[in-house]
Amino acid sequence: MSSWITSLEGTEAGHVAALGLALMAAFLHAVFGALQKGRHDPWMSRGAIDFCYGVMAAPFALFVVPWPEPHMWVIFAGAWAIHVAYKVTQAMTYTRGAYTVVYPVVRGTGPLFTVIGAGVIFGEHFTAGQWFGVAVLLAGIYGLAAYNLRTITLQRETMVAALGLAVVTGLFVALYTTYDAYGIRATADPFTFLAWFFMIDGLGFAPWVALARYRRMDDPPTLGPLMARGMIGGVVAFFSFGAVMLATRLDKVGEAAVLRETSTVFAALIGWLLLGERVGPRRLALMGLIAAGAVIVEMAG
User: Fold this and answer.
1) What is the pTM of this model?
2) Alpha-carbon distance 226 to 31, whole Å?
3) pLDDT, tens digit (0-9, with 9 covering 90-100), for 124-151
């Protein structure tokens, strides 16, 4: 599998594969966000998910994939620190804002800064048409934010703080996307990066935060359903994060990051169908504008 993946790098087949991987990551990331925002406290959900995917990744990291090269340990340490900051701001965001409000802002803020970072670090540059697509995507994002500020009633008292945190979380999305793309390209076997990342990231922070929070809760969730959600979320995380990271190795980082943000459309449907959140035609149209921007980026490239 590793040899086949690396053989596709820089080829037309690799570009097509990266497109499919990025779109798969978009759908799965919306599912992942709903799992964290859904029935349980976001901190508890994230802790359960991280613990589960860390445990599941450990056998692959230790016994299946090649061990990381010496220089990878510094890269893993940096990735761990960035993802800790991302998880903290993400959980704070989801605690304060409705899923269909904050998720598009989180996921949409990242591409602009990812594209800039990819240009600086990897020498990837967008065409004028692709920058127009980014502008369309951002118009949808911030139009959505403005509309929500004016009309939303759910968690209204914390909406401004939630949107501000969503922007900060989006900046961390850009940072980890660019940094992790560098990491997965720095090792000979891409699955070495993925397996070791999931093990280190999954067991390193969120489970212990969730445990501390669990002990302080007046009405803590039942562990059985929580861990079941964690197992499902862990599997989703493998395929979501793994897919977009492989896409960044096969093709351009900026394009993969932008295409992944079509997840906002899936998020709207999940929030409406599963979480009982009202979307409405105007908010759905703005989310469609975000998706249209991502399509323009791909077509103009």
Assistant:
1) 0.84
2) 16
3) 889 999 999 989 988 887 787 777 777 7
Looking at residue 141, its amino acid is I
Q: What is the pLDDT of residue 261?
A: 75
Q: What one-character-per-residue DSSP string does the chain give?
A: -HHHHHHTTTSHHHHHHHHHHHHHHHHHHHHHHHHHHSSS-HHHHHHHHHHHHHHHHHHHHHHTSPPPPTTHHHHHHHHHHHHHHHHHHHHHHHHHS-HHHHHHHHHHHHHHHHHHHHHHHH-----HHHHHHHHHHHHHHHHHHHHHHHH--TTGGGHHHHHHHHHHHHHHHHHHHHHHHHHHHSSS-HHHHHHHHHHHHHHHSHHHHHHHHHHH-SSPPPHHHHHHHHHHHHHHHHHHHHHHHHHHHHS-HHHHHHHHTTHHHHHHHHHHHTS-----HHHHHHHHHHHHHHHHHHHH-
Q: How many Å from the N-terminal Cα to the C-terminal Cα in the chain?
A: 28
Per-residue pLDDT reduced to its tens digit, 193-224 = 999 999 999 988 778 877 788 888 888 878 88
The whole-angstrom separation of Cα 268 and Cα 27 is 11
Does the pLDDT at position 265 exceed 90? Answer: no
| Cα angle for residues 151, 154, 155 (degrees, 5° grid) | 115
